[in-house]
Amino acid sequence: MFQNEMEKESHIPSVTLYSEAVLPTCDGEFKVHVFHNDLDDKEHLALTAGDLNGARGVLVRVHSECFTGESLGSLRCDCRDQLHESMQMISKAGRGLIIYLRQEGRGIGLGNKVKAYALQDTGADTIEANHQLGFHADERNYAVAVSILKFFDVKSLLLITNNPEKIKDLKEHGIEIIQRVPIEVKPNKYSRDYLKTKRDRAGHMLDHLDLGDGTVHLVDIPCDSCPPLEDEHSDPSIQKT
Ligand SMILES: [Zn+2]
Fold this sequence. Notes:
Layout (H helix, E strand, L loop, with lengths): L2 H8 L4 E11 L2 E10 L6 E6 L8 E7 L2 H4 L8 H15 L2 E6 L2 H4 L2 H11 L5 H7 L10 H9 L5 E4 L3 H9 L4 E5 L10 H11 L39
Parallel strand pairs: 4-5, 4-6, 6-7
Antiparallel strand pairs: 1-2, 2-3, 3-5
Helix pairs in contact: 5-6
Bound molecules: zinc ion.
The site of zinc ion has 4 residues, from loops.
């Protein structure tokens, strides 16, 4: 084994399933699983649909918590829409996994995220704001997600993301990603500049941002048990309640 592979392996935390239950949601019925781990004292979550054990070509979203967007309905980012789009995609496919990591504000925490918002209100972009606060542009760590993928024995992924760094990080941990499933949601006047920064400075694959239509590309899902997504599913104008 190469040295860097050994290092990556050694940093994969051990996770323990703490609790689980059926969770009906407005986006479909899931099972929610709460994990404890030996890396941090946070309770990371997974939402699952269908049988994942040993499965290949599983639709997976590795999602980082956004309290302002998901609980308060902030329009400054696309997190909430991405989460619900992903839940709908998985619900429709009948099988999949959302790993919900408790790393608010790209890993800088809620208080610092709000500080970063204040800096953005005086002209900094989201990356400059992080730097001014002494953080990297993105402090997220996907090691717990790797452990959770291994827990469910998911063999290969159709990863719902626009973020090339997330793909790279998971692949470096030995996770097989068959295909990326794009997830572009409709920008608004508050989120457009933030999304442009993510595209232009962080390399996020947001091909439709300038069109402003939030088109979600449909992909053929290469597994028997996941039927192709239907057209109406891609319509970002469908309001979620
Ligand atoms: Zn957000």
